[in-house]
Amino acid sequence: MIHLSNSPDQTEALAIALARDFRGGECVALEGELGAGKTQFVRGLLRGLGGDPRAVSSPTYVLLNIYERGRLRLFHLDAYRVGGPEDFEGIGFEELLDQGGVVVVEWASRVRDLLPVGTIWVKIESVDEHRRHIEIIR
Length: 138
Ligand SMILES: Nc1ncnc2c1ncn2[C@@H]1O[C@H](COP(=O)(O)OP(=O)(O)OP(=O)(O)O)[C@@H](O)[C@H]1O
Ligand SMILES: [Mg+2]
Fold this sequence. Notes:
alpha/beta; 138 residues; 25% helix; binds magnesium ion
């Protein structure tokens, strides 16, 4: 199903609703161009888990941010600058999936082969400055 979001808050609301059912062990793959709203969506996930969304920034340079304060630990990764899957393996991506938290990956198609069966795909497309089409495939 494709949702229409008219604002960052609406994008967050979709993510909050998604996170509500999480039990731990989920992997969320985010796709969309620069500025589409992937990080905004992660803010919603963290808010839905009871964490502090102000803590969220794109982990483009560090590859991994960890937010501990919600009801589940959130691992936030960004594959934008990875050279290849080996960079993700180098930061222990496979181990992260086994921690019982929630793993979220921006630019996920760049590490597609590493993503587990059952990964939830979220595809965000800009319609114009404020509108986004958001497809959640689970
Ligand atoms: N409906 C909307 N949903 C999400 N973000 C929106 C929306 N309308 C406008 N925006 C703006 O678009 C920008 C999205 O930025 P964000 O950092 O989330 O993008 P991103 O996909 O993570 O980009 P990058 O690939 O650089 O990490 C923000 O400035 C946000 O305010
Ligand atoms: Mg981002």
